[in-house]
Design a protein that fits this description.
Largest sheet: 3 strands, mixed
Strand order of the largest sheet: 2-1-15
Oligomer: single chain
Radius of gyration: 21 Å
Number of helices: 17
Strand content: 15-25%
Bound molecules: N~2~-(3-carboxypropanoyl)-L-arginine
Number of strands: 15
């Protein structure tokens, strides 16, 4: 197999029909500050599709993952609400509005948190490995992994090529947020990679480790979770680097590593506050990688933590081009902050590194909940044979793009407030739309309402 026939496919999550602003994510500054705003799910879904389409048009392989069934009435039933769907919604709205908001979150759009993936070239058994993230640190996201697992198994169904692991125990010691805290660094995609796992805290560590934890906001990923995923995937010590995220970055609103760093091939673009021990992290990467690491370090004098968090500069996608250059896909918020835009133009693009182009994308509906271009996509490195073995119609082409756009226009609302979440009609609209979507994507039954 030629290393050049191995590519990265970005699977973007479709923004769901209940996309709303409920301020559910503690430590995520955008989510906390936009709670209560009126959302526009239709615009959100179309913004996501427009990003996918423009990257597809530019020649990048683009996949799509479906949203989840929300409101999650099963979760409300499990919490003691009973009666018809309308009765449950009405009771929850009255007695526990916070729970209703949580079971309506469209957070599965951020597929960087769907799971962690190891490409076949790095795995001892030559298969692509998947572990859905348990997302146990918030209730609204804890609801995702079951359906995520079913969706991944439906699409990556061929057992000869794809291996699916159980979700880690959903308990604080194994708190796992998936690929948002995992970066694979390599030469060409088909060459062996080194896996950088970034964690925020150590669950079973010594007493001193608590001094190194954030004070204000929670650390969502544990070292123990990252180690368990690496173990499941068969990654050896020589293939892995575990680095602690800087606790001050978490306290400034960096709830995932992909809000402060992005890697691709041999390039690691990061803010100087990304890692607690920057030098050790880089040294270990250099020692383990079979190709020279190309660090692109952005100092705090160039981009303050506040600018980094508000602009989501580091939540960009870094994509490889056939001529060896790379393209940085940034959210439009980067243009609104002068220091950030100057850094992109005069430091990143002008620097001695492969990043030669910037593409600006408007994903504002998602950004207001703290999800930039990189949150919206799950990276899966696939050989041509693995790509051909996918089940369903999930790789974007013009026909699928136009079908999905028409589907959004047919089913989505353009205005959603927290009062609307109790509307039984919304729940019915979702089921009709999702049933149609699974047929359109040809992935079979993946939702609780389809499984009975
Ligand atoms: O987990 N926001 C998500 C954003 C996830 C971004 N993903 C990455 N960085 N990879 C979160 O904090 C807010 C939902 C709400 O408030 O309704 C939310 O869950």
């Amino acid at each position: 197999m030629s290393v050049n026939s191995i590519h990265e496919v970005n699977f973007d999550g479709l923004v769901g029909l209940t996309h709303n602003y409920s301020g559910l994510a503690h430590g995520n500054v955008a989510s906390m500050s936009h709670g209560g705003l009126v959302s526009n799910p239709k615009e959100g879904a179309l913004q996501g599709l427009a990003k996918m389409k423009s990257l597809m048009d530019a020649g990048y392989a683009q996949g799509v993952l479906p949203p989840q069934q929300r409101p999650d009435l099963g979760a409300l039933r499990a919490l003691g609400f009973s009666g018809s769907n309308s009765e449950i919604l009405a009771q929850a709205a009255k007695q526990a509005p916070q729970l209703l908001r949580a079971v309506c979150s469209a957070s599965s759009m951020w597929t960087a948190n769907a799971g962690t993936i190891t490409p076949s070239v790095d795995a001892p058994d030559g298969r692509v490995h998947f572990t859905p993230a348990n997302l146990q640190s918030s209730f609204h996201r804890y609801l995702e992994p079951k359906t995520t697992g079913r969706v991944l198994q439906a699409i990556f169904r061929d057992e000869q090529r794809f291996a699916h692991h159980p979700v880690l125990p959903a308990t604080p010691a194994f708190s796992d947020e998936g690929a948002a805290n995992h970066t694979r660094l390599c030469g060409e995609y088909g060459e062996p990679g080194v896996h950088l796992f970034v964690y925020g805290r150590q669950a079973f560590g010594d007493a001193r480790s608590s001094e190194r934890e954030p004070k204000r906001y929670p650390a969502r990923q544990t070292l123990e979770a990252s180690q368990a995923v690496a173990r499941q995937h068969g990654l050896s010590e020589a293939q892995t680097v575990f680095a602690q995220q800087h606790p001050e970055a978490i306290d400034a609103g960096v709830f995932h590593n992909d809000v402060i760093a992005v890697g691709n091939g041999p390039v690691l673009l990061y803010h100087e506050m990304a890692f607690l021990d920057e030098e050790r992290t880089l040294d270990e990467l250099r020692a383990k990688m079979s190709t020279p690491l190309i660090p692109v370090r952005v100092p705090v004098e160039a981009v303050s933590m506040e600018d980094a968090v508000a602009s989501y500069l580091f939540n960009s996608q870094l994509l490889s081009n056939t001529d060896g250059t790379m393209t940085l896909v940034v959210p439009s918020e980067c243009q609104e902050r002068e220091a950030v835009w100057n850094t992109i133009q005069n430091f990143i693009l002008a620097g001695n590194n492969p990043i030669g182009e910037v593409i600006v994308k408007d994903v504002k509906q998602s950004m207001r909940n703290g999800g930039g271009p990189a949150c919206l996509r799950l990276r899966v490195v696939l050989t041509e044979a693995e790509r051909a073995a996918l089940t369903g119609r999930v790789l974007l082409n013009d026909a699928l793009y136009s079908d999905l756009t028409a589907w959004v226009n047919r089913h989505y609302r353009d205005r959603l407030t927290s009062e609307d979440l109790a509307d039984p009609q919304l729940a019915t609209e979702v089921l009709t739309a999702l049933d149609e979507l699974t047929q359109l994507l040809q992935i079979g039954s993946v939702y609780p309402f389809q499984l009975g």
